[in-house]
Amino acid sequence: MTVRLDLTAPPTPAVDPTRWPGVARVPEGRLRAAVAERLLYRAAARFGVLVERPDRPARPPGPAAVPVLTLNRPADFFRRVGAGGLIGFGEAYQAGDWDSPDLVALLTALAAAPERLVPAGTAWLRRFAARRTPRGELPTAENARRNIHRHYDLSNELFALFLDPTLSYSSAVFPVRADGSPAATRDGLVAAQHRKIDRLLDLAGVGPGTRVLEIGTGWGELALRAAARGAQVVTLTLSAEQLALARRRIADAGFADRVDVRLCDYRAAEGRYDAVVSVEMIEAVGRPFWPAYFATLDRVLAPGGRVALQAITMPHERMLASTGTQTWILEYIFPGGRIPSLRAVRESAERHGGLRVADTRAYGAHYAETLRLWRERFTERAEEVAALGFDEVFRRTWELYLAYSEAGFRTGYLDVRQLLLVRGEAGGPVTAAGRHPEGA
């Protein structure tokens, strides 16, 4: 096999130190860099990853195709990882210190067993090295709007570049093949997003005259489909950009009399509703505030009402291990967020809201495919992203975010679920009228 030895590193992206201070700064620390280098090569051997670098030939682990990590600037890469761990790993990608010909394949290999990234017996050291979540990013009532603004108010035009025409920024539910895998295509993404929304509305029993509260408006597609069923909808958002576009879309569809879009924190929700629906919003609530979130659901839910949630989840032990620590995703994508486990949702709903999870269905493979479609479209439209004023570091940040998320769902490190919550004692599942059959 011919081994490439390229001594010319690609040009470094121009890094604005004001916009990207963590990316612009390369930490010192030769000892930590040396430790990071040793750990990388151990992990590469363990996971079957090929490491390429310009200052030494690569040694492929075998003849089959393997994930590749290309170190463009090894010294900077190891300094960042040595000082910042996985946050440094992400910052190194943002800065162009490393690349991969197949980013998802590489991240999938590394995410398959994250507990094996460090040698056995040393994981306990993480508690001393990991950064803590900044207090200013905890999603209190005062901080939540600022956290939401940092992501969702970037630009409606930016999101329109890679989302489908429904502007749905959450997992779709695709038809399934005979082997159970999602049949995901670009042309089918709109129908798949509507299938997702309709299943949630069916779970919540939404129909003519139903009083609906939506927590987390997005750009208004769920509210539109609920209104088209004859429901009266109040929908809450903290994003000024989403508020303006959602109101315009709702008015253009002729449903302004059925949908009230409010700039409002979930804690300030008013009224009583037959159905409460929320799509991938609980991830922004934060673990310390789950009691307030579920107490709010209980307070606004009318007798006999239903709550339908779509939530990203992770295994309970991994959730506990990451509680309170800052991650690259929290640092650069979703400040203040925290992904719950299904167990945490069950326990918090029962303890703080008097609600039980009566039905749940998992769609992790569907989210992996949804993210693949978004990532491909985002990458293809890089020039249009730049035309909106976003620099190369931003582009690389979002490429890594989308690929990292896709890898998480492909490995099962992450999952996404639709859940029905109702009041009452634990018992058998509650059947939602008109619910689609599994896999339809």
Written description of the protein model:
The chain is of the alpha/beta class. It folds into 2 domains: 21-129, no CATH class; 135-423, 3-Layer(aba) Sandwich (Rossmann fold). 42% of the residues lie in helices and 14% in strands. It has 17 helices and 10 strands. The chain has helices at residues 21-24, 30-47, 74-95, 103-111, 126-129, 144-152, 156-162, 189-203, 221-228, 240-252, 290-300, 316-322, 328-332, 342-353, 364-380, 382-387, 392-411, and strands at residues 50-52, 68-71, 98-99, 211-215, 232-237, 259-263, 273-279, 301-313, 355-362, 415-423. Strands 6-5-4-7-8-10-9 form a 7-stranded mixed sheet, with helices on both faces. A 3-stranded mixed sheet has the order 1-2-3. Helix 15 (364-380) runs antiparallel to helix 17. Residues 1-7, 119-126 and 426-440 have low confidence and may be disordered.
What's this model, at a glance?
42% of the residues lie in helices and 14% in strands.
- The CATH topology of the largest domain, please? Rossmann fold
Q: Any idea what the shape is?
A: globular
**SSE pattern:** HHEEHEHHHHHEHEHEEHEHHHEHHHE
Distance between the termini: 47 Å
Q: Compute the CA-based radius of gyration.
A: 23 Å
By DSSP, the count of extended strands is 10
Biggest β-sheet: count, sense, barrel? 7 strands, mixed
Percentage of β-strand residues: 5-15%
Poorly predicted segments: 1-7, 119-126, 426-440
Q: Overall pLDDT, averaged?
A: 90
- How are the strands of the largest sheet arranged? 6-5-4-7-8-10-9
Structural class: alpha/beta
Percent in helix: 40-55%
CATH architectural arrangement of the largest domain: 3-Layer(aba) Sandwich
- The CATH superfamily title of the largest domain: Vaccinia Virus protein VP39
Which class of the largest domain in CATH terms?
Alpha Beta
Number of helices: 17
Tally the structural domains. 2
